[in-house]
Each structure stands twice: as structure tokens, then as C-alpha cells.
Amino acid sequence: MSESVKDIVERLTERGVDVVRVGFADLLGSERGKDVLVERLPEVAEGGVSFCRAVYYTSTTGDTVDVPGGLDSGLPDISVRPDLSTLVELPWEPGVAHCLGDVIEPRTGEPFAEAPRSVLGAVIARLGELGLSAVVGPELEYFLLEPHEGGWRRYDDQAGNVYTVGRRGDTGSHLLRALRLLRDLDIGVTMGNHEFDGGQFEINQHHSDAGDAADRAFRLKSALKELATLDGLRATFMAKPFNDSGGSGFHIHLSCLDGAGRNVFEDAEAPDGLSASARHAIGGLLAHAPAMAALLNPTVNSYKRFGPGGAVPYLIDWGLDHRGAMLRVPPERGAGTRLEIRLGDASANPYLGIAAVLAAAYLGLRDRIEPPTALEGYGYDVTRSPVLPLSLGAALDAFEADAELAEVLGKEFSGAYLAFKRAEVARFTSYVTDWEFREYAYHL
Predict the structure, then answer these.
(1) Which of 210, 343, 375, 381 has its CA 20 to 30 A from that of 35?
(2) Which of 312, 316, 332 shows the shortest CA–CA distance to 324?
């Protein structure tokens, strides 16, 4: 960047900013970081800040999972260096600016292979070997919760407020406040609305190159959690938080550009206006879908969202403007030609979800994989298309078996991710749930 660190410090100081928050994503997609006093920024920009590598092997309950290169290596340090090109003042936190950090292996100075931003960067580079760059538009849904009797319930929960705006489904005007503050955060927010279920919302972001899109989606999730907390609420991106409602999706719109900036998925003379490159990308995304599920549907809870109906993917298929398909091709053509991958849920780490999509598309383009016939009619006929993995364990098995996808994503990352997530499955399998107690305690 053209502005020196010294100039940045002077500019921030003049604006009353005295703290720079350096954030980065762990394997879960949660933000970790450190608040740096602005006068210490020059030394941090040069040398980074150190964290124990256990930050990547820590479960949601704070346990350190035994991952190769972690406990067996003494939990060495990683170094996080601020990416000052992402610096922006936080509209809701006076005196604080925020930037993303790049995670470095201190011994080599190279990007840390298990850091999600590094994983995505490596996949983007592989796509670049084909002379292509990816454009991504992220779509995220979330539930807003309010305190109730020592727990949490859906905020402003009223059935039928589908795609509404205003106080009808948002009596506290959470969405309006969030939109205005997020606009000033400069993460490409464009619009928002109440979604399908009670207490569910969606805030849209524009499309951009894949790395920037992942940064923006990550920051959106972190920001919404902060803003909900300020309102005494909780924002959750859990895939399916309630038995009696649907879940929250993470849809990824993808197109690819050549060196001249032309959308290579568009071909007005080809069937359906889709080029050979578009077909091959679709072929790769379908061929590697079972393994992709491990990253796009990364929790035990994710698979409770799956099933026939509800416009949630269930089978490995694609269709032209068909919301029952795992991969939908929206009707726009020309420069707007794109693929919508509907597999992901909102709990996905944006960096890893987008990396998985790009890796599968890359393999399809590289290997010229032809897709099956497009879906027509009912989208949940198991005699027509293979079924997606229906549990996290099955998805991890598919990911472990997909050597090609693992190679593109990086073998070190893939091994660490498998160990981390297999431990999650083991914890769940051994845990006695409320359902089991209700089902069995009285009768057995």
C-alpha cells in the first residue's frame, strides 16, 4: 500500500483512533485477535503479534483438540501480521479501527498452511494457473435471538413475516441500525430483509474477487454478532437452531474471468448460454460435492438442515433457475452468467467454504469434467441423482477419500481439519442428549 505505517498512525491519531484491532479467522470461522495501541502499530506491522497455535485446535467449549503439529509439537507460536489495506474504523466502537491479519509460520516466514485465509489464497493461485480469477457473491442468513427465562428464543417471533421489512417483523429496528452501521464498515453491504422464519434475517453483499468476498463475509458475521450484543440480543449462524423451523444458508455465487476480464462462463451460441468452461466447472462442483460438504456444512448440526423440500440441497444435481437443486444457474446471461452453489449453511467458515467451491471448480476446469443432464421437475428424487452425505462423519469420510480436493486445499490443512472435526463427531457421539433422556428414561 502507498501510505506508510507512520502516516497511518498519524491519520488515525488525528481522527481520535487509539486502538487497532487485528482479527483473523480460526478453523471454525470465529474471529480471534488482539487490540493494539495505535502507537505500537509500527512494530506490530513489521514483526506481527504472536499467538499459541492452539487457537486453531480449540473447540467451541475451549478444549484443545489433539491435531498433528499441535500438542505433539509443544503448541508452538504463529505470528499474525496486520493487513493494513483492510483497515477501517469501527462505526459502533469509537476510537477503534479494525483490520484483518495474515497468519505466518515464524520459522519460515511463509503463510501458515492451516490458516483459512492462507488456504483460500493458495486455491486462488491454483485457479490463476489456468489464467482465471474468481468472482464471488456471498449470501448469508442468520437468526436473531432475544433473552427468555434464562435462555434464548427467536427475536420478534411471528409466523408468516416472510421477506418483510420495517417493524412488522423487526419491532426493535435491528435491521435498519445494522445496515447503516455496516455501510460505514465498507464491506459491500447492499440491502437486507426479514427472511423466511421467525427471527431470521438476511443481509446481502455485492460480488467481488474471491479473496475480498471471503474477507467481507467473515467481517459481516463478526460485525453482526457485535451489533446484536450491543442490542442485548444474539446473532447466530448455526445451521438449524430450532426443531420447528428451517435453517440458515450460505449461498455462493461464482463466475470466472479471463485475463481480459471476460466472463468465461458465458457463451451466447452454446446451449442454455453456458460455455464449455461453465459446464466443466459445474462438473467439478458435482463430482467433488460429497467432500465439499465437510467444509460447507461443517458441524454435526448442519445435517439436520438437510432433507427433501424447503429449498435445501439434498441431492447432488444442478438445474437452470431451479432452487431445488444443489447448484442453480440463475437466469442472467452475458456478463452476469454465474453459478449459485446452494450447498452451504451459514455456520461455514467463509474462507474455507469459498476455497472448497473454487477448488472443485478448478478441478472441473482442469480435468474438463462434463456434468450430467440438468434437473427438471421435482428436485428430491433419489432415483435420479446421488444423495449428499447425511452426517458430518460421512462428509468427513468423503473429504478424506477425495485426494484431489485435499491436494488443492493443501495436505497440511486437510489433515488438521479432519482431525479437528473428527474430534467434534466423537464428542457428540458420546454425549447424552435431552432427546435421549426424554425418549428413554421413563420407559426403559
Answers:
(1) 210
(2) 312
Instruction: Note the CATH number of domain 5-112.
Output: 3.10.20.70
In this structure, CATH architecture of domain 123-429: 2-Layer Sandwich (3.30)
Strands 318-320 and 327-329: parallel
Please state the domain extents for the chain: 5-112, 123-429
- 3-state helix/strand/coil string of 340-396: EECCCECCCCHHHHHHHHHHHHHHHHHHCCCCCCCECCCCCCCCCCCECCCCHHHHH
Amino acid type, 109: G
| Eight-class DSSP state of 73 | G
CA torsion sign for 189, 194, 196, 197 is positive
Do 134 and 209 meet the contact criterion of CB atoms below 8 Å apart?
yes
154 sits in which H/E element: strand 151-154
The reply to whether the predicted model has a pTM over 0.90 is yes
Q: Residue 275: what residue type? A: S
CB atoms within 10 A of CB 419: 17
CA angle 97, 100, 102 (to 5 degrees): 145
